[in-house]
């Protein structure tokens, strides 16, 4: 079985996000970019399934500008067999991303597609569900455990009420939650090895995907700030303050 | 004029409070109608609860055995079909709505507005991005507008409505490729984390599942729900459904007490809308104090029992 992994490049989660003074977006120039944490988890899971003999090949895919090659080399260094780079300078919204990934599915015929539950830049949490709908296949979002048994996967999902387990026929789309696994660290020799692994680039225009009408972002603002309150010296002072506000 | 369809969230015959929050968000559009769609195996009880919500015009029920569990692959084609004639389709930004609504949007061929936090006009909304570090104003293109409503941004609509309940029959074939196995729900008699007016949360500093007892004990004294940081969940002190933050639950209690939590941005994203934030941490430089209304520096293992005792 082949596994296709969505591997998006995003602003690193440690970066303090600044809104541009003209409100047209957030500052991304000169800011550290990293693989989306949920996508590293997706890749790690795919690698583990390959190490267990369940998967035979792991392919990472990204939809990003031309300068994202180093990002894909990261995924190859982590252990993916191949990489596909769909090149576009446009920011691709989830419905269009799902259409593009569907094209890659048609080309690659994977038995399982692993995506992150959300990209930590747009925080959309949509692409996997949209892809599953367009593909007319099962989805299992927020996965914290995946057990593949032949043509069926049992997936445990982190839902508000607790842990839900569902059974899905393959092929299917699974999106990862944080507790699915801990991604491995990349070792130096692997970075060298990754340089010779196949990396296919496809211009978005050559895929024949119609971009979906998307949302138009008109204005970015910093969130309302909570101001720093007061430090109390002891428990008695804290309780008095809470009593004064009628909170206890 | 807008006509809004809201997909009801329910479990074990109980309507989730998130549905009434979606009604409040929908009301901001001054719509012509707000209808609630109940997909269930046995819908009567849930529909009766939905009909009580003030501002709701009609409650539409679709009863099918396949709807006994909330499987998005099964529900989405029904919602997409029921959406005909509506300008907007809303669901809550809970794991239920996050799982379902994008599948509906894709079937309708439209984008989705995730985590709608403010209505500007019928096409224009505000939503958080970058873990809530920026708020973006977005406009939807022509076509149905599908959105998940950020529940922490809207209070639940009041009771006292008297909507009519109508059975809807939808001619849609449902897939069998997705099957429910089980739900392991964290059993708790404490107030629900997402709707509790007071929440006490513990972090990595608690050190073990056993030590977390002092958090539960303080919460019980306050009649509060209990939450946790991701670090506390990852370390196995508490189950996953207690995680507060960007990738856990976004909550807005009147009182939030963070104990032994450093205040990483991913955690703060989950509590920005809380009324009053109290932080207890031994590190006076901990970032949680930057946003806490009341901060207390010291060792939680002495301060928490002391606080519980002081509450009488
Ligand atoms: C993509 C992504 C998503 C994430 N989503 C979430 C999320 O949803 N929710 C979330 O919480 N985190 C999330 N995180 C993790 C987040 O970045 C932090 O790692 C986490 O919140 C830290 O948890 P903590 O505050 O309990 O632990 P720490 O950061 O280790 O803080 C422990 C605190 O306890 C204090 N302390 C220690 N001993 C004592 C004592 N005896 N008495 C008093 N104070 C003491 C310390 O001073 C310290 O401030 C996410 C991270 C990523 C990358
Ligand atoms: N441009 C992209 N390139 C590769 N994968 C993507 C891209 N956009 C979205 N994805 C995948 O879809 C997941 C969810 O993204 P989103 O719906 O934007 O929150 C991500 O974690 C990725 O796995």
Automatic annotation (TrEMBL), chain A:
One of its GO terms (molecular function) is electron transfer activity. CDD domains: ETF_beta. InterPro entries: ETF_a/b_N, ETF_b, ETF_beta_N, Rossmann-like_a/b/a_fold. The keyword rRNA processing does not apply. SMART domains: ETF. Keywords: Electron transport, Transport. The keyword Transport applies. Residues 23-211 form the Electron transfer flavoprotein alpha/beta-subunit N-terminal domain. GO terms for biological process: carboxylic acid catabolic process. Its cofactor is AMP. The electron transfer flavoprotein serves as a specific electron acceptor for other dehydrogenases. It transfers the electrons to the main respiratory chain via ETF-ubiquinone oxidoreductase (ETF dehydrogenase). Heterodimer of an alpha and a beta subunit. PANTHER family: ELECTRON TRANSFER FLAVOPROTEIN BETA-SUBUNIT, ELECTRON TRANSFER FLAVOPROTEIN SUBUNIT BETA. Belongs to the ETF beta-subunit/FixA family. This is Electron transfer flavoprotein subunit beta. It comes from Pseudofulvimonas gallinarii.
From TrEMBL, chain B:
GO terms for molecular function: electron transfer activity; flavin adenine dinucleotide binding. Keywords: Electron transport, FAD, Flavoprotein, Transport. Pfam families: ETF, ETF_alpha. Binds 1 FAD per dimer. FAD binds at residues 204, 229-230, 243-247, 260-267, 281. Its cofactor is FAD. One of its GO terms (biological process) is fatty acid beta-oxidation using acyl-CoA dehydrogenase. SUPFAM superfamilies: Adenine nucleotide alpha hydrolases-like (SSF52402), DHS-like NAD/FAD-binding domain (SSF52467). PROSITE patterns: ETF_ALPHA (PS00696). Residues 4-184 form the Electron transfer flavoprotein alpha/beta-subunit N-terminal domain. It comes from the Bacteria. The electron transfer flavoprotein serves as a specific electron acceptor for other dehydrogenases. It transfers the electrons to the main respiratory chain via ETF-ubiquinone oxidoreductase (ETF dehydrogenase). Belongs to the ETF alpha-subunit/FixB family. This is Electron transfer flavoprotein subunit alpha. It comes from Pseudofulvimonas gallinarii.
């Amino acid at each position: 079985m082949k596994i296709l992994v969505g591997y998006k490049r995003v602003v690193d989660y440690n970066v303090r996000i600044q809104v541009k003074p003209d409100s047209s977006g957030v500052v991304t120039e000169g800011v550290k970019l990293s693989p989306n944490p949920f996508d590293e988890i997706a890749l790690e899971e795919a690698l583990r399934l390959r190490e267990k003999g369940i998967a035979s090949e792991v392919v990472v895919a990204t939809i990003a500008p031309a300068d994202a090659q180093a990002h894909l080399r990261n995924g190859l260094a982590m252990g993916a067999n191949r990489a596909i780079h769909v090149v576009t300078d446009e920011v691709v919204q989830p419905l269009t991303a799902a259409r593009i990934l569907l094209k890659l599915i048609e080309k690659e015929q994977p038995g399982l597609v692993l995506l992150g539950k959300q990209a930590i830049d747009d925080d959309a949490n949509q692409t996997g569900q949209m892809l599953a709908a367009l593909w007319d296949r099962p989805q299992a979002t927020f996965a914290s455990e995946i057990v593949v048994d032949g043509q069926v996967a049992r997936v445990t999902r982190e839902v508000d009420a607790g842990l839900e387990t569902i059974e899905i026929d393959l092929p299917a789309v699974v999106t990862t939650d944080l507790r699915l696994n801990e991604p491995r660290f990349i070792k130096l020799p692997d970075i060298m090895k990754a340089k010779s692994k196949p990396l296919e680039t496809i211009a978005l225009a050559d895929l024949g995907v119609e971009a979906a009408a998307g949302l138009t972002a008109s204005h970015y603002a910093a969130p309302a700030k909570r101001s720093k309150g007061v430090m109390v010296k002891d428990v008695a002072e804290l309780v008095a303050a809470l009593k004064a506000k009628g909170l206890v | 004029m807008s006509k809004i369809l809201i997909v009801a969230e329910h479990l074990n015959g109980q309507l989730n409070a998130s549905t009434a929050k979606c009604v409040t968000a929908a009301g901001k559009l001054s719509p012509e109608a707000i209808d609630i769609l109940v997909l269930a195996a046995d819908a009567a009880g849930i529909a009766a609860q939905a009909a009580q919500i003030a501002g709701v015009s009609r409650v539409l029920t679709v009863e099918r055995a396949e709807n006994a569990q909330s499987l998005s692959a099964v529900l989405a084609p029904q919602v997409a079909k029921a959406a005909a004639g509506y300008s907007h389709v809303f669901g809550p930004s809970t794991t239920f709505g996050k799982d379902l609504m994008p599948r509906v949007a894709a079937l309708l061929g439209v984008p989705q507005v995730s985590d709608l936090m403010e209505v500007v006009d019928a096409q224009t909304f505000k939503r958080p991005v970058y873990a809530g570090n920026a708020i973006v104003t977005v406009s939807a293109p022509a076509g149905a507008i599908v959105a998940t409503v950020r529940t922490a941004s809207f209070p639940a609509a009041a009771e006292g409505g008297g909507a009519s309940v109508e059975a809807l029959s939808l001619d849609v074939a449902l897939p069998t490729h997705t099957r429910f196995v089980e739900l392991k729900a964290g059993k708790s008699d404490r107030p629900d984390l997402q709707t509790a007016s007071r929440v006490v949360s513990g972090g990595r500093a608690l050190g073990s599942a056993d030590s977390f007892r002092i958090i539960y004990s303080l919460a019980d004294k306050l009649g509060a729900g209990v939450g946790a940081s991701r670090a506390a969940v990852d370390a196995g002190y508490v189950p996953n459904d207690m995680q507060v933050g960007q990738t856990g639950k976004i909550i807005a209690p009147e009182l939030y007490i963070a104990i032994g939590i450093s205040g990483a941005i991913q955690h703060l994203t989950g509590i920005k809308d809380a009324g009053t934030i109290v932080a207890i941490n031994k590190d006076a430089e901990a970032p949680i104090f930057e946003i806490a209304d009341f901060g207390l520096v010291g060792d939680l293992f002495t301060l928490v029992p002391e606080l519980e005792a002081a509450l009488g």
